[in-house]
Design the sequence.
């Protein structure tokens, strides 16, 4: 068995009403030259009109002066034509709304399709017509379809929702690199304008032993953002730091788009950077999925992390909050019991992540880690300091997050793991 290989659309034939309505629309509105006319060879009562849509192929119309114009929307049942799309230049597309409006033709307005701009309206017989204009030109020797195929592969790999201009640009670069030779051994992107005073796009003030800081450090690496890290150990009381961060909390992000120039709290930092850079693979735009991501982070910060802090901070040597047993006048035995009680309470909220937020999925984010997964996996690193008895699923989950994020996770996590091992070592 072999295929019957097609080589393009030869022509599309539609059933029209009277002759002049067809000429008025296809040539008078859409500018398609009326190239020839002859009888319908299968029905002598009809005439057969041929129009050139612009690429040398044909749109043909069967007309009959006895058929009345009916503008009712054509059927969209299975097997029916939903719409026909025609290519126009950006110059023409930018005039489309005005030219439809001056004829009183109702239309959809401009629709953003990621890789193209579209507008929809009906012909006089109710057939939906789309005018589409690509937002890119394919490299020499390639078609629009070949660019879209490569962009699709990139989108799927990145787990993005739809093809966007970033995928198109990267697809074009890939096709050019693949098809054109170069004398250079290294064709990677470069900046030929190095400057000593050049600032990173994102500056993170951090404390390396902290899992809160680890969260943001993992994220900027996994997201591929331009960043610089400043270790502010022993410097949070300095006036220059307090001016930017009166809460004296880390991590602190400095970035030009922030209203105050700075932002603290790891979850807020990740949410902002996702929104600012369109990082939907870490922070889904679907309202329900985003709510679950937010809920998981808020539950962690408000419920799980306080238990983790009470259970691990005594071992790690971190100061605890006023009002806690650990900062009270209680004796050492009572303080040790408070830490053990907190450790015992971790299991319940931890299991909620497993049964509710994951609920059979690999990650809170589904098939790939979300910002909530980064926050949870980083937080659980501190429990190594007390040799916490993780359930099997939690060990597998932590390993899966690290495996999915690779060096973006492992490299900064080394700082926390080294600190934890030192803290556990006998004095």
Sequence:
């Amino acid at each position: 068995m072999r295929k019957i290989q097609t080589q393009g659309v030869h022509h599309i034939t539609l059933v029209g009403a009277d002759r002049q309505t067809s000429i008025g629309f296809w040539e008078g509105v859409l500018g398609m030259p009326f190239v020839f006319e002859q009888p319908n060879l299968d029905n002598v009562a009809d005439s057969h009109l041929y129009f050139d849509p612009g690429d040398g192929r044909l749109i043909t119309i069967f007309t009959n002066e006895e058929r009345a114009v009916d503008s009712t929307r054509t059927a969209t049942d299975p097997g029916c034509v939903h719409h026909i799309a025609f290519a126009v230049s950006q110059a023409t597309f930018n005039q489309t709304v005005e030219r439809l409006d001056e004829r009183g033709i109702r239309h959809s307005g401009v629709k953003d399709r990621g890789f193209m701009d579209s507008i929809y309206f009906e012909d006089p017989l109710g057939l939906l017509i789309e005018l589409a204009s690509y937002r890119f030109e394919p490299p020499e020797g390639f078609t629009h379809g070949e660019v879209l195929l490569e962009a699709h592969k990139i989108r799927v790999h990145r787990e993005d929702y739809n093809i966007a201009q970033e995928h198109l640009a990267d697809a074009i670069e890939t096709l050019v690199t693949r098809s054109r030779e170069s004398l250079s051994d290294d064709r990677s992107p470069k900046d030929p304008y190095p400057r000593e005073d050049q600032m990173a796009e994102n500056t993170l003030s951090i404390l390396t032993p902290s899992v809160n800081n680890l969260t943001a450090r993992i994220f900027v690496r996994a997201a591929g953002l331009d960043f610089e890290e400043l270790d502010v150990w022993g410097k949070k009381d300095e006036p220059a730091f307090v001016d930017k961060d009166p809460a004296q909390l880390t991590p602190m992000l400095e970035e030009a788009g922030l209203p105050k120039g700075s932002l603290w709290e790891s979850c807020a930092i990740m949410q902002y950077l996702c929104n600012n850079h369109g990082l939907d693979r870490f922070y889904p735009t679907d309202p329900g999925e985003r709510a679950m991501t937010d809920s998981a982070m808020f539950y962690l910060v408000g419920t799980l992390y306080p238990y983790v802090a009470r259970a691990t901070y005594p071992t790690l040597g971190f100061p605890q909050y006023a009002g806690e047993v650990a900062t009270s006048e209680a004796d050492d035995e009572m303080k040790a019991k408070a830490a053990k009680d907190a450790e015992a309470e971790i299991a319940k909220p931890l299991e909620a992540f497993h049964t509710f937020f994951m609920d059979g999925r690999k990650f809170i984010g589904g098939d790939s880690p979300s910002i909530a997964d980064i926050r949870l996996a980083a937080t659980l690193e501190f429990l190594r300091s007390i040799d916490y008895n993780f359930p099997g699923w939690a060990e597998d989950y932590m390993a899966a997050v690290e495996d999915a994020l690779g060096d973006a996770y492992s490299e900064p996590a080394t700082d926390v793991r080294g600190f934890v091992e030192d803290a556990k070592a006998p004095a």
Q: What stands out?
A: Residues 11-134 form a domain with the 2,3-Dihydroxybiphenyl 1,2-Dioxygenase; domain 1 fold (CATH 3.10.180.10).
